[in-house]
């Protein structure tokens, strides 16, 4: 279990966007209290959250601040999901999402609070090609979710294998080690294929998850022992090419080394998805050498395959909830291909729960 420590980061988020879910209008400004009396036994409600990425972290923090007892299950060894950072002797690599931006109120409020907590900083790279302020996690992108999960029960390397609706109106969570855990409510924030594998047999509503389309991404992490002045901090290419994005990771605040993250395009990654990492990395490095002359041999090079990197076709609704109200799915697949979509989806689901949505269930001991 991850070591718990106290967090000073608490949320009062105003939801300003118009979100319609099951006839409920979330368009009116809603201030979620830092501690809510809830309805009935809501204060003692036990909630399991599957996935410690951005959506899961936002759900966990907001529900904990509203008085729920939260437990986060994460199958990997770290938190952040696609806000991921890998470290090496040659420097750090944000091999997933490169930066965060805000267009709406919920994301803006989140970024402001993360900045106040010292968890993010501004990044203005040479080659910045899109408007707005860009923010990066500290000391890596995964640092952006750590304040959200601080002090909570986060269980790393604990995959969830099965969900079962219990006879006592709860939900049984069965983890990879065979252990069984009882909860009043479960929120699944994993990519839709994984979410449907857990929920599809429980309620036909979750079959809609099959309509979400993702693009994969091969990511290369490359470090050099000397500066490469001919490369900008950021460059974008075509989606059907091995070089769709080149980012100098070392140009971000808090990073070290002449390190680069290269993302292959979604179409190219899809065609090469099942190839071994070694040949894929060689092809991406060859493309880099052809793109920028005089690139020396790297002192570090590795590749990572993201199967669900970008949402190309979202569902179009903020979340799906089972008819009994005990299980819900949220995440960026609901609303779009930006990190902000994950926040908006989680925000809408939490507002629904705190407002009394879903079936009233007895609190667990």
TrEMBL record:
GO molecular function: oxidoreductase activity
PANTHER family per UniProt: FAD/NAD(P)-BINDING OXIDOREDUCTASE FAMILY PROTEIN, FAD_NAD(P)-BINDING OXIDOREDUCTASE FAMILY PROTEIN
Residues annotated as domain Amine oxidase: 139-310
Pfam families noted in UniProt: Amino_oxidase, NAD_binding_8
Provenance organism: Roseitalea porphyridii
InterPro entries: Amino_oxidase, FAD/NAD-bd_sf
Protein name: FAD-binding protein
